[in-house]
């Protein structure tokens, strides 16, 4: 399976990573190499095999649905690139 | 003793622990010896954020505990921490520019346990960006350098825990924390001539460790001896309610398990690991390892892991898929880097520019490869198929263990350390092949340990790997202890830095 430039552009968009037009051919080539490597899995007979969903057969614990933490606004915002008036600030989202 | 502290930074954890408890050395002296060695070793680029003030404060507290007769296993032992662990107030960047300036407001469970056990934090250690790499070259700090050197070239310490391996091998600290998603503890340990263990998935809490591939990530110790690994693993293991995959199992006394007696144990040798074109030195090392185990009274048994050869492609679907989801959180909003925006840029431009500037090329590729295999139309063909093959890989091991195999012996790496800049420049897959012997057991969730066994013709260290039954790290460490004693690996890199 080979990734063409349009597919590379689409995957970059889905990944929310800006890739300049001039860099797309190299990206497409490297992604093709990675995906080509994965093609080997087509040789495996997986008929009737359930996909693995848990590394060890354990039931994930559920905690009681109660508030366990909170009142840490300052700590939560401490590392934000732009925090104002107790909120994370971002560019305009809705016109 | 404290009058002449020369070389204390090169002690084992066990040796230093005993000397500290006997009062032959203080934690402050031991810490000072490491801080001096760290400053002299800057050219190795192993420590990327040093914490001398925190170290001395913790060392003084350790000395007070020792004086009071309260000396837990790591009391006063100076260690380094991979940059992937959140240490409160200390830069934690996962080797990435996207987390530049990030100082966590919380402490990872593993480091919390280390400090409670009295360990001293010397600083943060270099690594491949987000633990994605096998040479430490994808780090935003530039690569750590292997202290082993045989010609003009600078060699990779391996990756992703390259800084941890280099620091332990160069005696900058007594032990270090690493993490292992596809071999990131065992491959650098082998390249630097030290010991590194990846515990069973769920043995050690992942809480507070920057996530790469959550179903594969495990933290573990990187040390100079098997005994040191046993001591440190005991300190960091155990159930943690903050990690839902953390196992509610008692933690055995790993050090007490080091009896050196493996008589009657069955050691599996998987024929699928004997790869076409395997270097004769690696094959010879493996044969020697078998002989050592046989001489110790173990039985060598030929086994088959028929799906082992599909482990690498399976890993390179599952790990990027999980990474593409985990790394979605780096969006320039809550922490780390945000790109400068142009007039009229909206939130999508902010995401795209921030992530393009903040992530390095290999991380970008893995996020995109992961996004692709999870996208509509390809999910079944790639991701779901990989999860099915993963089930088959795990089943191979279960059948071997059900047939009575106690541990599996394999090479740790397909070569000794290579030169920085020599691999993966043109084709990323070339670098991925470094993980051929290590990824299998991450997929199966099994414990594995790399032990230095010899030097190659160039004079560089080579390691062997032992793979254990789930939750049987104690037995695995004992097997490794036998291998370590038989190999008698005592070589150290000649100091050039």
UniProtKB/TrEMBL annotation, chain A:
The keyword Transcription does not apply. It is an enzyme of class 6 (ligase). Its EC number is 6.3.5.-. Keywords: ATP-binding, Ligase, Nucleotide-binding, Protein biosynthesis. The keyword ATP-binding applies. It catalyses: L-glutamyl-tRNA(Gln) + L-glutamine + ATP + H2O = L-glutaminyl-tRNA(Gln) + L-glutamate + ADP + phosphate + H(+); L-aspartyl-tRNA(Asn) + L-glutamine + ATP + H2O = L-asparaginyl-tRNA(Asn) + L-glutamate + ADP + phosphate + 2 H(+). SUPFAM superfamilies: Glu-tRNAGln amidotransferase C subunit (SSF141000). Belongs to the GatC family. Allows the formation of correctly charged Asn-tRNA(Asn) or Gln-tRNA(Gln) through the transamidation of misacylated Asp-tRNA(Asn) or Glu-tRNA(Gln) in organisms which lack either or both of asparaginyl-tRNA or glutaminyl-tRNA synthetases. The reaction takes place in the presence of glutamine and ATP through an activated phospho-Asp-tRNA(Asn) or phospho-Glu-tRNA(Gln). This is Aspartyl/glutamyl-tRNA(Asn/Gln) amidotransferase subunit C. It comes from Pseudotabrizicola sediminis. The lineage of its organism: Bacteria, Pseudomonadati, Pseudomonadota, Alphaproteobacteria, Rhodobacterales.
